[in-house]
Amino acid sequence: MKKSSSAAQPVILKHVPERTCIACHEVKPKRELVRLVYSSEGVVEVDASGRKPGRGAYLCQSPECWHKGVNKGKLEHALRGKISAESRARLMKFGVAIRGGEGASSRTGGIS
Prior knowledge:
alpha+beta, Hypothetical Cytosolic Protein, Chain: A, 4 helices, 39% helix, elongated
């Protein structure tokens, strides 16, 4: 009797990179989080590609995490640098856009 070849093959799961939100400390797949980077010029910006040089940190797409991360000092602590008032306002504007359901389209456009 011949054995079925499909039953003997093991299931191979692909590794999904995970990161931790700096505000709520939840571990989520990297693609569900937004990366923020502190560039060498001292500017904090959204890193849509995930490849910009500089110190990075991740936030959930929830407005609570953006508020806690940007306004309560969590982001400054994680990035080990000061955030200017202009950058802070830009980041909060981006956080509001995520809440409005524009997160995916705003994320691809990025904020510099």
